[in-house]
């Protein structure tokens, strides 16, 4: 269990839901604030931005390595510079967005993509830092973010186990012990078959951190399953309406979907419980609906019990059916009325 901004994060608390706005503000501060309000109404715990500029991310080159040429990509045919120029959240917007989120009861923080972004976010007193999957091998950035004295949330997309080990070791060497590792598949959208949620308990065991899921699949099923496997944090991209478009809109959740996800992951967390068998508190009243042995015809004293006068029926107030062989052929100790539950004192 750790704390982020005073809120407990762990398997004994409701799953910590992070709403990632990313570039879904569509270059409008008014829309960004509208997203904040809509997401706050869902019960989300935190709102997250991304802090970069096109110039801190890449070079303004329009061909070669700087052109997205994967035909399967949502951003096929665009340059990295143009994509980041459209998707970035202006740094001047961070403070009003964070302030609106805090007023609406949410924590607010961001993903820094270079050291200047870490310094900028430190000036805004964010409660934690998030490291994106594409930066989880940038050990100097990890060290700088981890040295700020705040919790660190790290997505593990594309990283090998040894690379995750280097990242965690770097963060701890910088003095950060409150770490959350997020299982992540860096595809947009991601297929459920590529998520491999069994990695979640393994990450917890391997590194002794809190674990969660940064989820790019559609719907809520993967997130609910992740919580059942021990995820204490869920991160999803959010938007007002996918139909409005935007760089990440195709795999982002709308507010009603967020509300359902928060509800169902909380239910999943409550249902995990512990290894337990036997009657639960709510089952006590149901025991009477088991089958048990009952006298089904009137019996005279001294008459033998048989399949004709004793049967296993509901309710469950008599001897259990497993005692049938010990009852059949024995004599009745007294007259017994039809509908009497079998008990040992009825046997002579």
UniProtKB/TrEMBL annotation:
Listed InterPro entries: AFP_Neu5c_C_sf, Aldolase_TIM, PseI-like, PseI/NeuA/B-like_N, Pseudaminic_synth_PseI, SAF, SAF_AFP_Neu5Ac, SAF_PseI/NeuA/NeuB
PROSITE patterns for the chain: AFP_LIKE
Superkingdom classification of source: Bacteria
A Pfam family hit: SAF
AFP-like domain location: 292-348
Alphabetized PANTHER family for the sequence: N-ACETYLNEURAMINATE SYNTHASE, PSEUDAMINIC ACID SYNTHASE
NCBIfam families according to UniProt: PseI
Name under which the protein is recorded: Pseudaminic acid synthase
């Amino acid at each position: 269990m750790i704390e982020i901004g005073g809120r407990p994060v762990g398997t004994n608390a409701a799953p910590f839901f992070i709403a990632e706005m990313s570039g879904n503000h569509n270059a409008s501060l008014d829309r960004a604030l509208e997203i904040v309000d809509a997401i706050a109404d869902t019960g989300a715990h935190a709102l997250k931005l991304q802090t970069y500029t096109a110039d801190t991310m890449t070079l303004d080159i329009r061909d070669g390595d700087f052109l997205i040429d994967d035909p399967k990509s949502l951003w096929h045919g665009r340059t990295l510079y143009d994509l980041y120029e459209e998707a970035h959240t202006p740094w001047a917007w961070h403070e009003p967005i964070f302030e609106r989120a805090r007023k609406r009861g949410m924590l607010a923080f961001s993903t820094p993509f270079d050291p200047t972004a870490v310094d900028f976010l430190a000036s805004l007193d964010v409660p934690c830092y998030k490291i994106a999957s594409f930066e989880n091998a940038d050990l100097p950035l990890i060290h700088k973010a981890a040295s700020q004295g705040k919790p660190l949330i790290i997505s593990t997309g594309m990283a090998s186990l040894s690379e995750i080990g280097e990242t965690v070791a770097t963060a701890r060497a910088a003095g950060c012990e409150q770490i959350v590792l997020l299982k992540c598949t860096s595809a947009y959208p991601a297929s459920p078959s590529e998520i491999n949620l069994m990695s979640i308990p393994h990450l917890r065991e391997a590194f002794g951190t809190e674990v969660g899921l940064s989820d790019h699949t559609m719907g809520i099923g993967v997130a609910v399953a992740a919580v059942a496997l021990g995820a204490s944090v869920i991160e999803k991209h959010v938007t007002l309406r996918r139909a409005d478009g935007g760089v990440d809109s195709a795999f982002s959740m709308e507010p009603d979907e967020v509300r359902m996800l928060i509800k169902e992951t909380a239910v999943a967390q409550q249902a995990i419980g512990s290894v337990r068998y036997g009657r639960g508190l709510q089952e006590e009243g149901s025991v009477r609906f088991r089958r048990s042995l009952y006298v089904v015809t009137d019996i005279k004293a001294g008459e033998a019990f048989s399949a004709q006068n004793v049967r296993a029926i509901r309710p469950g107030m008599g001897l259990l059916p497993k005692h049938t062989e010990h009852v059949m052929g024995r004599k009745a100790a007294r007259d017994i009325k039809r509908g009497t539950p079998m008990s040992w004192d009825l046997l002579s």
